[in-house]
Amino acid sequence: MKFHGTMKVNEQGHLEIGGCDTVDLAREFGTPLYVMDEVLMREICRQYKSAFVEKYGNAEVIYASKAFLTKAICCLMQEEGLGLDVVSGGEIYTALQANFPPERMYFHGNNKSASELTMALEAGVGRIVVDNFYEMEMLDRLAGEMGKKAEILLRITPGVEAHTHEYIKTGQIDSKFGFTLPNGQALEAVKAALKKENLVLHGLHCHIGSQIFEMDSYAYTARVMMDFIKEIQKTTGWTAGELNLGGGFGIYYADGDEPATITDYADAVFAALREKAEEHDLPVPKVIVEPGRSIAGPAGSTLYTVGSIKEIPGVRKYVAVDGGMTDNIRPALYQARYEAIIANKADQPPAEVVSITGKCCESGDMLAWDVPLQPAEPGDILAMFCTGAYGYTMSSNYNRLGRPAAVLVANGQADLILQRETYEDLVRNDVIPARFRK
C-alpha cells in the first residue's frame, strides 16, 4: 500500500487527503466521490516545468486534458503555466468557458469535424495537430474561407511499439492515428502541408502510447523523429522548429509498477535529441510534452460506501460498493490494477484478501481482484487510490447511474468542482414522442 501526496492517517485513524478527513468528505458530499489532491497536482506540474523548461529552456509542458478536465482544472493549469492538449469541441469549449488562453491550446484528434475545426480557428487555438490528408484538405479550405492561417503540427506514427497495454499503444505502424513514417506517407504529408496556402507548418507530433515505464522508448522515439527531421530537410529544405513528443509517462498504481522520475524522462529525451542534432547538424527543436495521467492520476482518489458482502467459502470474498465501472471503466477495459483501503479503518492493518465489485448489472463490473483490505462492513468508506485520470472522463450513465461529484482538497478545505448528477439530469435529454402522449 502506497500513500501519495498529502495522504496520511489522522488522529481518528481515518485516511486524510489535503488536510480533509475522507470520512467527513463522504458524509458531506456523498459517495462515490472523486477527491483531487490540489497540492500534489501543483507539485507534479512544477516538477515537469523544472525538468523540461527550467533545465533545458526551449520546451513547453501542456496538460493532456482527456485525463481529467473541468473548468476548475483549467484554471489550475493556467495558474501553473501549463498549456492544454484538447481533443474535441467539448474540451475546447470547457477551456474557453474557464477563460483559458486559446493560444496555449493544442488541438488533437483523428476525426475532427468541420464544426470543431471552425471553432478552433475562430477561437485562435495555438496549434492544430493535423492527423490525416482528409483533415489537411478540410482545414486548408476552412481557413481560406475564414481568411485565416491555421498554425499546425503534423501527427506522425513513428513505428515505435511501446511496452504497454494493446489498447493504449498508438505509435506502432498499425494505428488509427497519424501519418505513417516507415512507409513514406509522413514525408508526403509534410510536402503536401508545405504547399497549402492557408496552413503554416511549425513542426511534428508523435505519441507512442500510455503508461510507459521504459525511458529508452522515449529516447528511441526522439532519435527516430530527429532522423526524420533530417530527411525532411534534405528533401524539402524545411526544418521543423517544434517537436511534440506526446505523453504517456507511467505512474504507480499497484505493487510491481516502477515508474521513472520526471527528471529521468526529460534527461533521456534531451540526451537523445542533442545526440542526433549534433550528428545531423540540426538545431534542437522546441520540445513539447503532454502529461495527463501522471499529473491527475496520483492526485485522485475515489471514495465509495461499502454495501453488500458475499463470501464463497474456499473461492472468493466479494465486497460491493456504490460505484463501479460507471465511474472507473479501466479495470474492465484494460485490466487495470488499483490499491484500496477502508478509509475509516486506515490505522488498522489489512486482515483479508477480497475482490471489490461495483453495483452494475455486469459480471465484469470489478474494481479490483484479490486485494488486501481491512475487515470490511456495510457502511464503511472505501478509498481507491490513483483514480484521478480516466475515471470521470471515461465515466458513463450505464444502468442510469449518475456520475459522481468531485472535490478539490487543499489545506483542510474541500471545494466542489463537479456536482453530482441527479435523476433529473439523467432524463434531461429524453424526449417522449407526441404519439405516446395521447
Automatic annotation (TrEMBL):
What is this enzyme's EC?
Answer: 4.1.1.20
Annotated active site residues, numbered on this chain, are: C361 (proton donor)
Q: Name one GO molecular function term.
A: pyridoxal phosphate binding
- Principal EC category: lyase
Q: Quote the record's binding site residues for substrate.
A: R293, R330, Y334, E362, Y390
**Out of the domains of life, which is the source?**
Bacteria
Q: List the InterPro entries hit by this protein, alphabetically.
A: Ala_racemase/Decarboxylase_C (IPR009006), DAP_deCOOHase_LysA (IPR002986), De-COase2_C (IPR022643), De-COase2_N (IPR022644), Orn/DAP/Arg_de-COase (IPR000183), PLP-binding_barrel (IPR029066)
Q: Which reaction does it catalyse?
A: meso-2,6-diaminopimelate + H(+) = L-lysine + CO2
Q: Which cofactor does it need?
A: pyridoxal 5'-phosphate
Q: What does this protein do?
A: Specifically catalyzes the decarboxylation of meso-diaminopimelate (meso-DAP) to L-lysine.
What name does UniProt use for this protein? Diaminopimelate decarboxylase
